[in-house]
Sequence to fold (110 residues):
Amino acid sequence: MKLIITIVQDEDAGRLIGELMDQNFGVTKLATTGGFLKSGNTTLLIGISEERFDECMAIIEKVCKSRRQIATSPVSMSGASSGMYTSYPIEVTVGGATVFVLSVDQFVKF
Ligand code: 2BA
Fold:
């Protein structure tokens, strides 16, 4: 068994969960925050059999789109020790999906 942990944009989360549920995958949704943009994203936990791994990854790849996003990056004005910061806009490409795949030793439901 595998555990897929995937971080996706909020805009894609509803459709991705819908498609996974339609195909009888078990999904848990967590509301998360990206460390860089400090804005909301969605993390899904998906436990699956090895046989259905490729099918699940194909759905994630199909649904999750990459998007350009403007972020405000804080920079130190005169060295980090000064405590004075200014910010400037930068453009980053977010997503489609950041995917971690773990092997599961044991899966039990009580
Ligand atoms: P954030 O940390 O908010 O990052 C959003 C996007 O900002 C990233 O998109 C990337 O394009 C850019 N970015 C991140 N760190 C950067 C940096 N130090 N300098 C310049 N640009 C930077 P993605 O790579 O698609 O990541 C989307 C979200 O996935 C991330 O949101 C974070 O929540 C998660 N993530 C990505 N890589 C991860 C990792 N290695 N471990 C844990 N979570 C990760």
Q: What stands out?
A: The longest strand covers residues 67-76. The helical segments are 10-22, 53-63. Residues 2-66+95-103 form a domain with the Alpha-Beta Plaits fold (CATH 3.30.70.120). The pocket of 2BA is lined by residues 7, 34-37, 41, 92-95, 98 (CB under 6 Å).
